[in-house]
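Task: sequence design from structure.
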């Protein structure tokens, strides 16, 4: 099954390192990041899980719950967690799904048979509090992900969910933003009483809502 932006994230019940989780119920009113890694006891995955554990306060600050997945057993997840603590200097402080029957991997199309017909690729799904998919990413097994980028996208998603703005390339929280094209100038005058920088009629720059102007 292909899971696309705007779809309701498929619900499931799974065995995890923190007990059985019913996904939608576990998410509650939080945002969520579901990410797969190909295999336990592998080097890139070891660094990724350590990284996400260290970044957990950043996810929590944004009201985001993180959950990992691989097709390995819970027993292996638990043994591997000791290696992660030893080598990455942090305990794994979020649940990791044991998807031995590939139920969740299949639901989310995480196994790409022409890459590998048994292991998952490195998928990322960001899910909003409305349970809709806001972002999908797919990386190959050999490339570790940039979780700072995932936090950056979450900052953009959370801002643009509330304000009628979009964020330019390489944007970071606090940088100026763009008034969305669906907002005409009359409405923009009400929404952005401080005005905007009219680079082009379709490219209108405003400060990050609530931040000091950099215009
Ligand atoms: C790794 O996590 O290091 C890895 C996993 C599967 C294939 C290649 C690398």
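Answer:
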């Amino acid at each position: 099954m292909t899971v696309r932006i705007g779809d309701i994230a498929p619900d499931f019940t799974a065995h995890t390192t923190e007990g059985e989780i019913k996904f939608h119920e576990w998410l509650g009113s939080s945002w969520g990041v579901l990410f797969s890694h190909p295999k336990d006891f592998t080097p890139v995955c070891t660094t990724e899980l350590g990284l996400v554990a260290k970044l957990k306060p950043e996810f929590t600050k944004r009201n985001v719950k993180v959950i990992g997945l691989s097709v390995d057993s819970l027993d292996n997840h638990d043994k591997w967690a000791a290696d992660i603590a030893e080598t990455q200097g942090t305990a794994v402080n979020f649940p990791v799904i044991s998807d031995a029957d590939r139920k969740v991997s299949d639901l989310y199309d995480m196994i790409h048979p022409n890459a590998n017909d048994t292991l998952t690729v490195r998928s990322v799904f960001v899910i909003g509090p409305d349970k809709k998919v806001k972002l999908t990413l797919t990386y190959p097994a050999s490339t570790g992900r940039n979780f700072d980028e995932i936090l950056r996208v979450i900052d953009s998603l959370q801002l643009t969910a509330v304000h009628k703005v979009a964020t330019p390339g390489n944007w970071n929280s606090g940088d100026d933003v763009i008034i969305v094209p669906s907002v005409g100038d009359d409405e923009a005058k009400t929404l952005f009483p401080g005005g905007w920088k009219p680079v082009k009629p379709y490219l209108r720059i405003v400060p990050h809502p609530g931040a000091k102007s950099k215009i």
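Residues 127 and 133 are 5 Å apart (CA to CA).
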